[in-house]
Amino acid sequence: MLPFLLLASRAEDAAAEDEYAAYLRYGGLDERELHRVRLEAAPLPALDLSRYSGVIVGGSPFTSSDPPEHKSPVQHRVERELSALLDQLVALDFPFLGACYGVGTLGSHQGAVIDRTYGEPLGAVEVELTEEGLQDPILQGMPQAFTALTGHKEAVRLLPRHAVLLASSATCPVHMFRIRTNLYATQFHPELDTDGLVTRIDIYRHAGYFPPESAEELMANARRFTVTEPMTVLKNFVARYSR
């Protein structure tokens, strides 16, 4: 099997390693089958897409809709590199799954309006599939409504007409969409379980997602949930595009 490629941008080693382990676990992959590039650490190397089954973009502390002057040089570089890569991926209709930050990257690339109107705090949300979502192969086997874990400052406020809306929540109208046939983005995290969310709350307590003093309460609340359905997205993506 050709490996998948995970493009990560979490500078904190604990968060980066936990994310990679989650993609391995819930994708049913081993380290030979999921190559990782940490974009925050070094420029994206030249890629031969014919060597990969698909591309996955993980979550990130970067916020796409921030004013340019508020972005670091590293964020500007990562955004340029991902935009150039998406030029190729969209043209080829190459398998792509962007989780959380993937909404900001694929959405921005395709002309979506992204801002802080529909941000959601770290925690569990009820996500509901649209009629198109119920028919999409990446969402097969999932119930129409399910609990997912999320936490994001920005979200899509308006999708371009050519995008297909696949899932929504009461507080965030665009939780998943598709471009062409094979490019997907989710606002919720298809790789994230309760233990992973607790880890991220602890690591990012001073990152502006929530008041730092509320971290312990958020972690206690997170432990109340058992989340299993969103991982089906990742499992289906791997199964559909492995080659």
UniProtKB/TrEMBL annotation:
Instruction: Note the InterPro entries from the entry.
Output: ChyE-like, Class_I_gatase-like, GATASE
Which keywords annotate this record? Ligase
Q: Which residues form the signal peptide?
A: none
- For the keyword Hydrolase, the answer is no
- Return the protein name: GMP synthase (Glutamine-hydrolyzing)
Keyword rRNA-binding set for record: no
What the entry lists under PANTHER family is as follows: GLUTAMINE AMIDOTRANSFERASE YLR126C-RELATED (PTHR42695:SF5)
